[in-house]
Amino acid sequence: MDLLKQSYAHGSSPLPPNAAASQYHVYLFGGNISKSLSPLLHSILFRANSASWAFHLTETTDGNIFRKQLDDNTCIGTTITMPNKVSFGLLLDDLTEEARMIGAVNTSFIRLDKSGQRRHIGTNTDCIGIRDSILYRMPDAGTTAKGRPSMVIGGGGAARSAIFALWRWFGSTEIYIANRLKAEVDALIAFFQSTAPDITLKYLATAKEAATCETPYIVIGTIPNDIPREAGEITCRQICDTILCRKNKGVVLDMCYLPSPVTYLYTNGKGNGWAVIPGTEVLVRVCIAQQILWLEKDVNKQGVDDAMSAIWKAVNQGESGPKASKI
To answer: Which InterPro entries does the entry mention (predicted)?
Structure first.
């Protein structure tokens, strides 16, 4: 519950004694979110905590609509997805350290200042979902991974969250980046040089480099599960294959879960003897972290189990949305 304790650095609780029975509302803001799995998961988690709160989708990129909703006293928090993770964060009253260093916000919660005024705090729970998914499967990973390199596949926003998690909680000495475009990696390196200069990032350009570098202990995929077609995509796949064939196996986590959590990276990692974690687990643990900030208590085990079962069933029955993951 360190997440909850740290949240109080931004103010005190806004919840009354009968908060669970109150008619509070949480909103998801983003583009193309009609088939989001967040309503399914949050309804399960609210119910597990006996909270009669409602979760709503607001498909918009309009910051004015977002800010107006925050001003409603029944709004107890929001979840923010693409393409709003950067722009909407600027409209909040404050940001946590994670949000500042990653440069993106996917969650807002409320704390009261000394005069009792509501303050909307932005944070990033994507990185916490990554951390908790790994530690649940491998409780000793925080110690085992320390002092060893890790690898992230991709160069977008999800890659930022993965890099932060590997640096902050797993003590990675160096983080390799495999990506189809070097320009994206250059931009990623430049970004972290400005927000977290202690993070050491290295671009793997060829499979030959992957064959000679120290084997990473944690590998995190942040790209869609598409068949590689362009030269950069093919090289990136070759780099991943080379790494997974190395000795000294560790853990593979693929954040992509649509159209199926059983991705190429997941299957290849498992086939080569790595411990594997599907993206569905990350999404559930992202939602759990959000619930802790809103409800100010942990989710019971039955709620977690129900959410895990529900999302696995949903994605495997084709009830989910677009091909790339959106959390």
So the answer is: Aminoacid_DH-like_N_sf, NAD(P)-bd_dom_sf, Shikimate_DH-bd_N, Shikimate_DH_fam
Please give the CATH superfamily to which domain 128-277 belongs. NAD(P)-binding Rossmann-like Domain (3.40.50.720)
Instruction: Give the whole-angstrom CA distance, residue 158 versus residue 160.
Output: 5
Q: At what angle do helices 301-316 and 38-48 cross, to 10 degrees?
A: 160
Angstrom distance (rounded) from CA 326 to CA 279: 10
CB distance 154 to 130 below 8 Å: no
Peptide bond into 216 cis (omega under 30): no
Angle between helices 264-271 and 231-244 (to 10 degrees): 30
The pTM (predicted TM-score) of the whole model is: 0.93
Instruction: Please tell me the number of Cα atoms within 13 Å of 207 on its side-chain side.
Output: 15
- The DSSP letter of residue 220 is E
Phi first, then psi: give them for residue 253, nearest 5 degrees.
Answer: -125, 125
Q: Is the dihedral of CA 70, 74, 79, 81 positive or negative?
A: negative
Whats the size of the chain, residue-wise? 327
pLDDT digits (tens, 9 = 90+) for 27-53: 999 999 988 999 999 999 999 999 999
Residue indicated by tokens 């509302």? 25
Instruction: Provide Rg for the chain, Cα atoms.
Output: 19
